[in-house]
Amino acid sequence: MIRTHIIPCQLAKEQADAFNLASGRVYTGVLISHWRVVRKKRIWLSEKAGTRWSDHRTTASLHAHSIDAAQQGFYKACRTTRALRKAGYPEAKYPHWPKKFRTTIWKNTAIKHEGQALLLSNGRGNEPITLLLPNHLGDVLRVLEVRLVYDKRARRYTWHLVVENGKQSKAALGSNVVSVDLGEVHPAVVGDEHESVMVTCRERRHEQQGHAKRLATLSRALSRKKKGSRRYKKLVRAKSRMKAKHKRVMRDMEHKVSRAIVEVAVERAANTLVIGDVRDIADEVALGKRTNQKISGWNHGKIRAYTTYKAEAEGIVVVLQEEHYTSQTCPTPSCRQRHKPRGRTYRCPSCGFQSHRDVVGQVNILSSFKYGAPGHIPTPPIIKHRMPHNLRLMRRRRDTGQALAPVARRSSGPREAAGL
Ligand SMILES: [Zn+2]
Description:
6-stranded mixed beta sheet, 10 helices, 20% strand, 15 strands, 4-stranded antiparallel beta sheet, alpha+beta, 420 residues, single chain, globular, binds zinc ion, Nucleotidyltransferase, domain 5, 2 domains
């Protein structure tokens, strides 16, 4: 299976900058010569001709295939524009801005794998870079590509490693169908006709609100400073650092939630995972300020993407299911009345049925997939809970079998330590 791993970069900022500066120069070289030929000769150069035309602009500090990658970047962007225009977006523009920096790419021909380290070649006469692999990547089969990516928010460089880990996707354990309802308060309810598992993550709201609060405090402080001053710059840095951390925490939660979804699907012996399609939820108008704010809390696209690749590794096929009226239809087969729930509990005014709102959504998605309409499957008798991101458990000190170092009391200042 091919996977991308992001690991911290130990290169000095100047060294990393130099690489991406060189890549930016190569990219800009192609861009400039391409548009110059278009302007003067009215000829649209092919990728082959264009790269050859601009080869004299290349720099000697990169591996030949890294140079290729930067050149290909321009033509790849052209292809994207063409595809977009064909798909009905005539406003899509061809790449025309020069780039100062560009992510440097080492292709597999420039990568040598030696034990725990990768040697990244930079062309003849240049020192290769030694990149130490973290322990969990020590036994990868092949490294297909290495990218030197600047994380704008965190203001630091990271390595993106594309690796073939040699693992095969497993075969599905059974032929069950499991459905998922992605929600706002609870990230997901997963289950079939017999059992529902609510994947909860209370820390998400905590993180979201805390982040908004801290951001507001910083923005307030920032508005009182003179633009461009030392304090101003310091606060701007603090703000982007905070945003970077928030992004990391959210990403971690999204990964853990998607892992929990797939775990339940495996336990229920599924080979099909039906996900309620919430893609157009943000497009609906007049949701109101509060709801709009809530909806932005989870990145459902990411949870879906993470779930999809994790499920595929377990041999489970992911299907998107239209979720019309799945949250409103009463799941009692003799009733099937539509009713908009208020709050977290679904109460049917016609038959008195009561259940958790997200569980109703989950069985109705399953029903829509199996029978073409919601309301054909009653809610399962067993409802369980799962907390994949539990701070209290995560912070609990693991028993390593080693004696703990004595913890210093907070009040013990230097005076007390000196025996005074
Ligand atoms: Zn009912």
